[in-house]
């Protein structure tokens, strides 16, 4: 890949990038910005996906993450019924150390240079206040504050959608769309996870949590002493009597080490790209573990930010996010009909919608 000089975009087209339409490397030396914008597909409309700010081990790792996340957004937007393709951006670095208005403004100029092919929003490491800054340089930024014409934090509807997917999983497996009396383990109780915990408690679930941040755990256990906090994810997934495991932190939560020791019967969480590699979905199915595809159940946030482009209405968005329940039920039915894991069934449905759009 070609290096990037100040203020210059190099758009890269490669046949070996999983069908991605465009990959943009961004660098602004004055602010310290190094970023990657990946556009997987615009068949259904402008690519829509958040901006992740993370201290990647290498630029190659950042590019790989951007590509995987962008592809996932194409499928997510298709399954959510949105007229958007998939894209994603990653900013390389520790946001606690290098994030600044100057850096975010520089990033906003790169988004602007794409002329609407990519619409950005919040993701890990970026927040509503950050999007307000980015939006000063372009009109293709969502996830802004209400004071700046936006819809605010999309975590609320993301958590709501995951909860709907979890209810659908419970109905499919246990015959009742409720988590009452079920033990649910939530790994990662940050922006989305802590709201999901509230839904679960209201529904009568027993909740076990873990997080790398002690303050995130304390925020919940101080308010809800009935919630149990455990040391780490490995302890959580081995918890006796666990019915549902909800990965709500970074991707790759389901791999060759975790799947064999999972005690839960259902996996349904907010994290993106939970399957560490192809084949994990089959390993889950072989163990009798029901997997609710991540990009289906965590689509509440993208439903919200997409609506923001047309004049945000929370009730309208919540109604659309509630349909994640029906979509998840339909995926399980398709998986059973075709004799394939739910993840493969979701991919087939999404690919069909994208292909039909390309053929129009």
UniProtKB/TrEMBL annotation:
Localization (cell): Cytoplasm
Pathway(s) of this molecule: Amino-acid degradation; L-valine degradation
Gene Ontology annotations for the cellular component aspect, listed alphabetically: cytoplasm
Pfam families named in the record: ELFV_dehydrog (PF00208), ELFV_dehydrog_N (PF02812)
Catalytic residues, chain numbering: 88 (proton donor/acceptor)
GO molecular function: nucleotide binding; valine dehydrogenase (NAD+) activity
Glutamate/phenylalanine/leucine/valine/L-tryptophan dehydrogenase C-terminal domain sequence ranges: 152-359
Catalytic activity: L-valine + NAD(+) + H2O = 3-methyl-2-oxobutanoate + NH4(+) + NADH + H(+)
Entry-linked InterPro entries: Aminoacid_DH-like_N_sf, Glu/Leu/Phe/Val/Trp_DH, Glu/Leu/Phe/Val/Trp_DH_C, Glu/Leu/Phe/Val/Trp_DH_dimer, Glu/Leu/Phe/Val_DH_AS, Glu/Phe/Leu/Val/Trp_DH_bac/arc, NAD(P)-bd_dom_sf
Binding site for NAD(+): 188-193
Superkingdom, taxonomy of origin: Bacteria
PROSITE patterns: GLFV_DEHYDROGENASE
EC primary class: oxidoreductase
Record key words, sorted: Branched-chain amino acid catabolism, Cytoplasm, NAD, Nucleotide-binding, Oxidoreductase
SMART domains: ELFV_dehydrog
Listed EC numbers: 1.4.1.23
Residues spanning the membrane: none
GO annotation, biological process: L-valine catabolic process
Family: Belongs to the Glu/Leu/Phe/Val dehydrogenases family.
PANTHER family per record: LEUCINE DEHYDROGENASE (PTHR42722), VALINE DEHYDROGENASE (PTHR42722:SF1)
Complex formation: Homodimer.
Protein name stated in the entry: Valine dehydrogenase
């Amino acid at each position: 890949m070609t290096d990037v000089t100040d203020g210059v975009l190099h758009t890269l087209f490669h046949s070996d990038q999983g069908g991605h339409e465009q990959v943009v490397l961004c660098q602004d030396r004055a602010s310290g910005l190094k970023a990657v914008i990946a556009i997987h597909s615009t068949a259904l409309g402008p690519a829509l996906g958040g901006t992740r700010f993370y201290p990647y081990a290498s630029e190659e790792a950042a590019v790989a993450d951007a590509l995987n996340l962008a592809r996932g957004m194409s499928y997510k937007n298709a399954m959510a019924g949105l007229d958007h393709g998939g894209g994603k951006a990653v900013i390389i670095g520790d946001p606690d150390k290098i994030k600044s208005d100057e850096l975010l403004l520089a990033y906003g100029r790169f988004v602007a240079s794409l002329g609407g092919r990519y619409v950005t929003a919040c993701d890990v490491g970026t927040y509503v206040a950050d999007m307000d800054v980015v939006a000063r340089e372009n009109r293709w930024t969502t996830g802004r504050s209400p004071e700046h014409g936006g819809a605010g934090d999309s975590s609320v509807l993301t958590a709501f959608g995951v909860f709907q997917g979890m209810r659908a999983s419970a109905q499919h497996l246990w015959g009742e769309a409720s988590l009452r009396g079920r033990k649910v383990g939530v790994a990662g109780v940050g922006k989305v996870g802590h709201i999901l915990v509230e839904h679960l408690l209201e529904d009568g679930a027993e909740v076990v949590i873990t997080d790398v941040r002690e303050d995130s755990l304390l925020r919940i256990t101080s308010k809800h002493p009935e919630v149990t906090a455990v040391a780490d994810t490995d302890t959580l997934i081995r918890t006796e009597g666990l019915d549902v495991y909800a990965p709500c932190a970074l991707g790759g939560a389901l791999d060759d080490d975790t799947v064999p020791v999972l005690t839960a019967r259902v996996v349904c969480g907010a994290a993106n790209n939970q399957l560490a590699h192809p084949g994990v979905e089959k390993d889950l199915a072989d163990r009798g573990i029901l997997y609710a595809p991540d990009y289906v159940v965590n689509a509440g946030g993208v439903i919200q930010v997409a609506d923001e482009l047309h004049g945000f209405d929370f009730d309208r968005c919540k109604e659309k996010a509630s349909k994640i329940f029906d979509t998840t039920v339909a995926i399980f039915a398709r998986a059973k009909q075709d004799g394939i894991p739910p993840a493969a069934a979701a991919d087939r449905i999404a690919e069909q919608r994208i292909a039909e759009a390309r053929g129009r």
